[in-house]
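DsbA family oxidoreductase, pasting as requested.
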Amino acid sequence: MEIKYWSDIACPFCYIGSTRMKKALKELSLYDDTPLEFKSFQLDPTLPTTTDKTMLENFSSGHGMTTEQATAQIEQISKMGASDGLKVDLLNAVPTNTLDAHRLIKLADSLGDRDLTEKVIDAFYQVYFSKGESIADHDVLKKAATAAGLDAEKIDEVLNSKQFEKEVRTDQMEAQQLGIQGAPFFVIDNKYGISGAQPYETFVQALQQVQAKEG
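Structure tokens follow.
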């Protein structure tokens, strides 16, 4: 079995959904032997790298909501994350561009160390959802990525260039070609798709069904 999943660091449902999928894989003793590939998906590639807008302003305008409606929705998302043991402080997140974070994830993935890649992904989720720091700030990215185990010189090399931008764009083009319009989106064995942050039990059942069909 192999799994690809399209995800964005700025996506709370991606954070929650991927956590549930990984938990399901571990529950079924499949995690160690199942390649799990993070595919880049930017929810809003037009966002700037610096902003004065708050998440509440960005969320309400982007979803056509009043401030009260947006606040209620954000609080509901935070509660959803908490139910999975995740701190999802979306209200204090900084709505900025995630391209450079995706490029560093590609750097980690290119090194062939799955644990390292997972640590980098998790570190960036922490930056965005727990620490309220800008995921586009190079100093913030470097600090988080080096703490996760990436080499500082390699990080600088990527951030000071356009390395891995093509790979990020390719992931996004592949999503378009497959008709994927949102994230997270999981593809199992290039055949079976799961959209969104489904309940944990749904991921377990889907994996069991694929096991039964594919052996």
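Note for the archive: The chain has one domain: 3-203.
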